[in-house]
Specification:
Blueprint: H1 2-25, H2 30-33, H3 50-58, H4 69-84, H5 90-112, H6 115-126, H7 128-160, H8 165-175, H9 178-192, H10 197-207, H11 211-226, H12 230-279, H13 281-289, H14 291-315
Helix pairs in contact: 1-5, 3-10, 4-7, 5-6, 7-8, 7-12, 8-9, 9-10, 10-11, 11-12, 12-13, 12-14, 13-14
Length: about 325
């Protein structure tokens, strides 16, 4: 265990040095940071369909010239950080993962002296930053969905009052708060600087994963192509979104008990195993020291996974 901790500390120190080196030499010029958005700056849309441009934007992080596996990994992680609205580099996140796992491993080793518990704690703390980024992004998406109805009403009423589309967006920025105001502020700046509607809206869709946003953007882009009363279109979309959210809330209420039951049934064997391990090591070690025990553990895990997936399939109702 002592040598394992030494290896972890060495890897963490190495990653810190790599992160500092890349920060100084790779991102020394501010213009270098804009390379992540280089595909969005191409405003020539002739002969390119919306579907093709969407695919191009989604894959821009994986299609960089001469990019290595590490660069592709960092680009995907950078996209997750953008969605979570975190001002960090992927390298810093990786370093934070190793530092957290090492500190937690050392503390747990000093307290328990048990290799299995130390390993489990290291794995848990290593994944904490990833879980935090995911939950922060999910929270932003939910906040955006909760407020997009108000944004559509504001844009629709502003257009009825004689405002232009850009002026209507500026009203949304002033009248709303948090995620909605920030995202529409970025959209307004991009459109004001001459970015095409397709590129600006696709950039917004990259930052925010929302079915309601996709519905709004598709309606606006179609209206730009074929014409029509945008104010009336957005008003109808706002009503559709409100009805969809009402139905979703009803479904969540009806399926909450099933989801909770599935979660409890899935986690109960895990917690029971941990409790038995803490109170009686030798009793639970039999499962991991004999062939029959290992076979039973594998069979139990497979059954748990299948049971969880079946319950999830039953309670998840797609709209």
């Amino acid at each position: 265990m002592k040598y394992l901790l030494i290896v972890f500390i060495f890897i963490s120190a190495l990653l810190v040095n790599i992160s500092i080196f890349r920060s100084i030499f790779t991102y020394s010029k501010p213009i270098e940071k804009l390379k992540y958005f280089d595909d969005f700056n191409d405003i020539s849309t002739k002969g390119v369909t919306v579907k093709d441009r969407k695919k191009k934007n989604i894959k821009r992080f994986n299609n960089k010239k001469n990019s290595s596996f590490i660069d592709r990994y960092y680009n995907k992680e950078y996209l997750k950080l953008i969605k979570a609205d975190l001002r960090f580099n992927p390298q810093e996140v990786v370093v934070a993962k190793f530092i957290l796992s090492i500190i937690a491993g050392i503390i747990s080793f000093l307290i328990t002296k048990d290799k299995i518990i130390v390993g489990l704690i290291c794995i848990v703390f290593f994944n904490i930053p990833k879980y935090y980024i995911f939950m922060r992004a999910k929270k932003r998406f939910k906040e955006f969905d909760d407020e997009i109805y108000d944004a559509l009403i504001i844009i629709s009423n502003s257009l009825k009052a004689g405002y232009s589309f850009l002026q209507s967006l500026s009203v949304v920025v002033k009248e709303t708060n948090n995620v909605l105001s920030k995202e529409f502020s970025i959209l307004l700046k991009e459109l004001s600087l001459g970015k095409s509607n397709i590129d600006a809206f696709n950039s917004m869709k990259m930052r925010i994963e929302s079915e309601n946003l996709s519905l709004m953007i598709n309606a606006i882009l179609i209206q730009n192509d074929i014409g029509g009363n945008l104010s009336e279109i957005l008003e109808n979309i706002s009503k559709t979104i409100m009805e969809r959210e009402y139905i979703k809330n009803e479904l969540k209420t009806l399926t909450a008990q099933g989801k909770l039951s599935g979660m409890i049934i899935s986690l109960l064997p895990v917690f029971m195993s941990i409790i038995l391990y803490l109170f009686n090591h030798e009793y639970i070690r039999t499962l991991f020291s004999t062939k029959i025990g290992i076979f039973m553990v594998i069979l139990g895990l497979i059954g748990q996974v299948f049971g969880f997936l079946i319950i999830k399939k039953i309670v998840n109702i797609e709209m």
